Amino acid sequence: MSTLNLGILAHVDAGKTSLTERLLHAAGVIDEVGSVDEGNTQTDSLALERQRGITIKSAVVSFEIGGVTVNLIDTPGHPDFIAEVERVLSVLDGAVLVVSAVEGVQAQTRVLMRTLRRLRIPTLVFVNKTDRGGAQDERVLWAISEKLTPAVIAMGSVREVGTRRSDFQPYGAADAAFTARLAEVLAEGDDALLAAFVDDGARVPYGVLRKELAAQTRRALVHPVFFGSAVTGAGVDSLISGIGELLPAIEGDVDGPASGTVFKVERGPAGEKIAYVRMFSGALPVREQTEAGRVTAISVFERGSAVQRGEVVAGRIAKVRGLTDIRIGDTIGTPAKEAEAHHFAPPTLESVVVPARPEDRGALHLALAHLAEQDPLINVRQDEIRREVFVSLYGEVQKEVIQATLAEDFHVDVTFRETTTICVERLSGTGAAVEIMHAEDNPFLATVGLRVEPAPAGTGVEFGLEVEPGSMPPTFFKAVEDTVRLALLQGVHGWEISDCTVTMTHSGYAARQSHSHAVFDKSMSSTAGDFRNLTPLVLMSALRQAGTRVYEPMHRFRLEIPADTFGQVVAALARLRAVPQSSESRGSAYVLEGEIPAAMVHGLQRQLPALTRGEGELECAFDRHQPVSGPVRGRRRTDHNPLNRKEYLLRVKRRV
Ligand SMILES: Nc1nc2c(ncn2[C@@H]2O[C@H](COP(=O)(O)OP(=O)(O)OP(=O)(O)O)[C@@H](O)[C@H]2O)c(=O)[nH]1
Ligand SMILES: [Mg+2]
């Protein structure tokens, strides 16, 4: 049986979860349509989601359309949870992008559509909430073609838009304007059709157009648009037909080599790890031994939720138990396709999580480790000296959710310190340093020389040797390299140096005592520990010599505001250190684009409603790092500080 793994994506509150509920109902999976407002939908199943009425985690449900198993993945729309969307994108065969007929195209709608188009994921658009007062059809359609993609085709019209009675009427062969539009848009993507169209006007048979529409939708060249309401159910049947007709159902290569991707990890009632796996080819049976552990149980999504099966085959999504070492993003078997690193920008904020009761420290650690399994981007970091824990964040709502989750699921009450931006450090030049074994102020039995050089942003840390690889045991080289990578997490000012080339220029060690001495004397022979302890000192001297600069994260913003608020908004932007780079008047609105420090984004979000009577629309995402102007913003060190030699040696001594 063929499968379609379908994502539902949208700006927050557009109606994804409500639409999911409707689709499940229309497909006969559930008898009653649940409601987000009453907290009883299938996919907002977490207590916190039900309380808050927003989706926090992506969730999978399934139903059948004409013999095709559709695995539907409902995703969160709030930008703080964009990482959830990111993880899902790699397993989708198609998507439905939901747009509210009242709010129209919103900031996150643009971000998502841009990514869907870049990844060439076949996408239908569903314009939701046509039943609500203020709903618009023509205007939203125009906005979609203007702001998202020009290749859109309305698949029908709405009657009585903006009322409870609103209904969707699909177009057919008899609608001349529709067939003309089909021919015109599809001709763009197909030369033969273009020739026929030019030759013989609109006389291309309707059946041919319809087939071509499906073909081009599957190639993500065109985007059919449906209208309706997740609350009244209007247009939902047409959308279901559209999903069946226009999106690609996959017949997986069941006999190929096993290959799957883990896009979600959760814990079951007994605390057991559950991995959500999408298989791209082959099969994964129960009892299979994988690198991450032995599969103990598999449940495949079918007609609603997951049912126990002996295996999961190509095309399908399953919950797999037993993989104790599995992490999000891991591959099962052979990698399916070149994984793209990131579709969206990483978090640029961080905060310290403080347990309300000091004795909860251990429990907090365990809890955060569990949360990091489900969301590795929170990047839990431990401050060894002050014993504090840092997490990375997208924003304030995510912070509140982490706080509530810790309280409710783990019974750990926490507060957060002030949220700050995550800066990076970059080398200004080249530096080198060396520490020689047996020199007076080198207490370690090791010689290490390092040269550091700047590398372009995004290239990472490169470690190389300028000494003979055979000149020392490999474990000592490994100790140096591992320590270099660790020490670079905190540069001269305490921020990560993510891009640089480090070359080992000197090496030396004291060999084990010869046989004539009979016993191995540790004090006379080098150990990996000597290299681990010495390397930070050498690296820091080299970094200091090279000089480093602190860079802060900058976001690109796009701001749409009522024209008469322009003056106030521009003044506020200046106060927030934002730099508008272009402004364009669009009827009664202004579109401003520019850069704003990540540190100021939250302030802008807070002020915007008051500045623009609630009409301002802000789209914002990390773009690049920029040198911090003014005083250097240092970050507190979380390790033994190798910048202070005396103190460092003292602490190392104490640790040994
Ligand atoms: N009138 C009307 N209200 C709707 C419709 N669809 C959703 N809503 C309401 O809009 C609100 C948000 O709906 P959700 O389904 O939670 O939206 P969502 O896109 O899943 O939201 P997030 O997952 O938090 O991004 C709820 O109050 C719904 O009742 C619709 O078609 N008509
Ligand atoms: Mg939702």
From TrEMBL:
Residues 1-253 form the Tr-type G domain. Transmembrane segments: none annotated. Pfam families: EFG_C, EFG_III, EFG_IV, GTP_EFTU. InterPro entries: EFG_II, EFG_III/V, EFG_V-like, G_TR_CS, P-loop_NTPase, Ribosomal_Su5_D2-typ_SF, Ribsml_uS5_D2-typ_fold_subgr, Small_GTP-bd. SUPFAM superfamilies: EF-G C-terminal domain-like, P-loop containing nucleoside triphosphate hydrolases, Ribosomal protein S5 domain 2-like, Translation proteins. Gene3D superfamilies: 3.30.230.10, Elongation Factor G (Translational Gtpase), domain 3 (3.30.70.870), P-loop containing nucleotide triphosphate hydrolases (3.40.50.300), Translation factors (2.40.30.10). Keywords: GTP-binding, Nucleotide-binding, Protein biosynthesis. This is GTP-binding protein. It comes from Nonomuraea roseola.
